[in-house]
Amino acid sequence: MPASRSADHASFAIDDSTNRILRDYPLLCSRRITLPGQKMHAHDGYEFYFCLQGSGSYWVGDIVYPLEAGTLTVIRPRTLHVPKMPARDPLERYVLAVGEAYMDELASNVPQFAECLSCVVIPGAPSSQWHLPPSLLAEAETALTAIEGELRDRGAFFGMSARQWLIRLFVSLARGSLSAKPETEGDASAIPVVQRALRYIADHYREPIEAETLCERFHLSRSQLFIRFKEATGYSIRQFLIHYRMEKAKELLLRRVDLSVTLIAEQCGFGDESHFHHMFKRHCGVTPRQYRMRHRSR
């Protein structure tokens, strides 16, 4: 039951650490709880982000996916992304990265693997998200734990064993996808209301967004919408909107040096430059101009 949309492939920050690991060995698998501060980044491998427990959001280009137990977010190589969550709450997940050449080799040489892959990685979509039922999530966790152990211990024939567990994982995910009802852009009733709210914010963040507008649009009371949004993302709507606008502003400050700070403030929905300066310094510790100068000098 995937949801997918197009995303911006332009490079913003290259994840050299992940790229180095995948050059050394084309699989990376780790169970994580803490979430260090990250910026929008991209790397050369596929990423499969299995959320086991907790809540937050995953920003992929101009797309925002909610994170909750059972979500699997799939990201193609060189697609910009960053996970977000409140600092006080843990987000337990497995992150699996697979080198592009390694994936291509499996698709070419392992019978039916290409078919399995196309069930999980939606053709033509830079990213997508699946909602795994508990039984499938448990099955995936077993495979991911085995892959992580093989890559960590590097015992005899670890490469063959990790490969077999990876194939088994994709078979399970592909079988699960065949019995799932796809979520599409045109079928709004099949998409959870929080995900629709996130999409609305991603599409309209440049404009004033009032809670009443969202309530009317999604036919929920203010308290119902606020509770569902907080449970799914870990943020209030106001907090999320500020963070989303801030990420967009930081991206424009570095990618579009031809744009003035005033114009960036307007394009990111902050209204006026004075308010933008205040919010930016509060969240980043420096002014927009200082942020631009510091990163340009690196």
Automatic annotation (TrEMBL):
SUPFAM superfamilies, per database record: Homeodomain-like, Regulatory protein AraC
Task: Kindly name one Pfam family recorded for this protein.
Answer: HTH_18
Does the keyword field hold Flavoprotein? no
Task: Using the record's annotation, list all stretches that form the HTH araC/xylS-type domain.
Answer: 195-294
Q: Kindly give the InterPro entries that the UniProt entry links to this protein.
A: AraC-bd, Homeodomain-like_sf, HTH-like, HTH_AraC, RmlC-like_jellyroll, Tscrpt_reg_AraC-type_HTH
The entry's keywords: DNA-binding, Transcription, Transcription regulation
Q: Name one GO molecular function term.
A: sequence-specific DNA binding
Would you tell me the protein name for this molecule?
Helix-turn-helix transcriptional regulator
| Lineage, top ranks | Bacteria, Bacillati, Bacillota, Bacilli, Bacillales
